[in-house]
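question for whoever is on the cluster today: can someone run the full assembly for these? two chains, 972 residues total. i dont have access anymore since they changed the login thing
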Amino acid sequence: MGFGESEEQLLSKVATNGGHGENSSYFDGWKAYDRDPYHPIQNPEGVIQMGLAENLLCHDLIEEWIRKNPAASICTEEGVSQFSAVANFQDYHGLPIFRQGVAKFMEKGRGGRVRFDPERIVMSGGATGAQETLAFCLADPGDAFLIPVPYYPAFDRDFCWRTRARLLPIHCDSSNNFNITTSALEAAYHQAQKSNIRVKGILISNPSNPLGTTMSKQTLQILLRFVNEKRIHLICDEIFSGTVFKSPRFVSLSEIVEADPTIDRDLIHVVYSLSKDLGLPGFRVGVIYSYNNAVVACARKMSSFGLVSSQTQYLLGCMLGDEEFTSEYLVENARRLAERHGVFTAGLARVGIRCLEGNGGLFCWMDLRALLKEETVEGELELWRVIVNEVKLNVSPGSSFHCAEPGWFRVCFANMDEETTERALRRIRVFVNGEGEEVKMMKTKKKKKNGWDEELRLSLPRRFEEDLVLTPRLMSPHSPLVRATI
Amino acid sequence: MGFGESEEQLLSKVATNGGHGENSSYFDGWKAYDRDPYHPIQNPEGVIQMGLAENLLCHDLIEEWIRKNPAASICTEEGVSQFSAVANFQDYHGLPIFRQGVAKFMEKGRGGRVRFDPERIVMSGGATGAQETLAFCLADPGDAFLIPVPYYPAFDRDFCWRTRARLLPIHCDSSNNFNITTSALEAAYHQAQKSNIRVKGILISNPSNPLGTTMSKQTLQILLRFVNEKRIHLICDEIFSGTVFKSPRFVSLSEIVEADPTIDRDLIHVVYSLSKDLGLPGFRVGVIYSYNNAVVACARKMSSFGLVSSQTQYLLGCMLGDEEFTSEYLVENARRLAERHGVFTAGLARVGIRCLEGNGGLFCWMDLRALLKEETVEGELELWRVIVNEVKLNVSPGSSFHCAEPGWFRVCFANMDEETTERALRRIRVFVNGEGEEVKMMKTKKKKKNGWDEELRLSLPRRFEEDLVLTPRLMSPHSPLVRATI
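^ ran it for u. tokens below:
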């Protein structure tokens, strides 16, 4: 359903300007999966979901902890005496045990090299809410943050949609493994100035989504010098910090900030979440850790729009306070991720597919430049359609991450079991070994204009936008597991 | 801490314009409570919190259900097999059992006279998030919604702060028990037009917070005719619908909308929450129920900023699906509220204090006009300071609800036990019977300029704004129970 002129008047500009960004190939891939989801028994030829950065490798450890600690839940015989107090708790500072637990876990995820003050922990509805809150705190409509490309597609929604802030690219490419350079930083800044756009800061993700790499200390220092000199903000999204599975080790922004007294702390803000490191995206735990007192105060007021359920705060507060558990968890999580990453990249290497050398995240940045018919975004999307439609793997094209260089794809590997991983690798092998055939097929299809290509670009929550078949079933992206059981 | 010029440049206008509205006497009263909270044993002379519209009367029923239904929690031996699927569930449509349960509960709370389609249930972070989401969907910056006064103070934060929308008053007063009249409605609309402000709709709460009354069918029909004629929206906040404890019965907006095919459904939006009827504000369950498909689609995309924790969705989905339980709960909740309301208003009546005749909500609208020294806002606030400071009851002055008529106060009665209720009534009796003395005392104090009056107006999360005493303890409003146990 489109919006007629009268609808546009009835609703706001934000509601009708498409700023949500759901009409991108990143989300379209999820849609393709939704139409024909892989299931080992019921639909073994379906699309395998490799477009979701989920971590399902360590839920068994959390389940075991839950079984052993029934009092941590207010919904057990052992814990129900706390029900009333917890259910009634709506203080936007959050439960002390929750903030203390999160601070401790953040410290542990950074090798104990830094300290986090629980009083600076501000809750938000996932990292999604955290990014929006920071944008509201720091930027007026029209103001911009610089951001290295490629970057997480939903940053446009999170940071810009309702705030009317902007993200402007810092050019990065494969010539130096997509690292940020001083010249690229300066160029982006001056480009903005030339266009009369006020730059209020820089937004980075470390470890990078989609690259799966961590930033070096040197790069972080370049960024810190730059923001200090221009007196603009630096927001560092560290939601994948606990997924670093091999060297070089993760260097957190806080580590450098704590060591260097010349840095203006009022400019420094860290975003964290439990969605990736603990694999709990459904619990909606986002965190803003700002070194700026006014931002802490303001973000906390804004957190009223997305507080974490006190039921969830209480459970996680108890869990993260168990340091023996969290220590073991982080080690085992890294071990399992390393193993899966090894299996996956080795499988790709066997058919000559190379990935950017990664050390963290739940995905690889896969180089398929050699398979492009032409080095353009359209060429990349043609190849992507073949991968989704014929190879039946939902991977995400680099262009959806605003990557300037065609031919890169993000492939997630931690949201599936071993068997599915093997099946995905097998499909890739068949595709690459029979590549000539596949590409020929694709060309034939293109001539036929079979309509599928055009049709794919549809937005996600189609129920109200296309038709009104109102059946109570799951429609949007999630793991097959959820679909099966609830 | 104020903001220097340089701070203002560093942060956004939203962060520095004070639009959050925390500097009002409504929140100041909470602060006074925070300084000196009543406790039956440890601090029997402390301030009794009557400024929080919380419902603690029926938690025992919910606890009993939880004990009997361990599988409803993913944190029990019986339910943990669902842990992984639920923890990983981040679909913004919400768990089907959750949406179905909420829809059923909303139907039951409206006497089964209307049907709610689970596909139209959009989650939000409490009613707070619901109001903001609707404002973002319907209003551009500068656009206005009309709202009858008195109204819930935090609507300014929820509806206006980050959206830059406006609320313009519809004048109501005690001459007709604060009912909305056609002439007041027209006057507010024309006043806005004269000021070149675009009116996008009307926002009402039914049952009314702070009045504790429900709107008649006739009033709702007047409002519906008005929005239909002007083609503007009607948002009805029905978060207290399950607290109506005596006749006249609650008439929901949906009941009239369903019966009248001439109403343009694209203009109709209902806000609901489980914070009041079930007494679960900590769980952050807000709901938007819109009859406009485009608003459902857009609000659902926005819900990503404040999804309900899937752990909480699952528990409540199971609980609200148990119709035997919810039926009994609603009856017993109304019975206990009626009883408490009866005790409280009878106690006030014994010393000649009258309240507006109420039939719902968790509060009374208390008429203290006879005790005012002068019929002004300042006169009201003087009396209020005596009540908070000397009588040691945190009640909320009408002016903080934008009431145009001085001398009315909102007093909450469902957030405490019987003993505390009796103590509060005793304090009121002493105050009123010895009123001359009290007022004399107040005047003496005023002459002395002891500083307390001035000092009271402080914003809430003082830790970062005033000083940096960073001790991990609870600071902001909550029940004494929470303070005691977590």
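summary bc i know u wont read the tokens: Chain B touches chain A through 112 residues (CB under 8 Å). Residues 436-486 of chain B have pLDDT under 50 and may be disordered.
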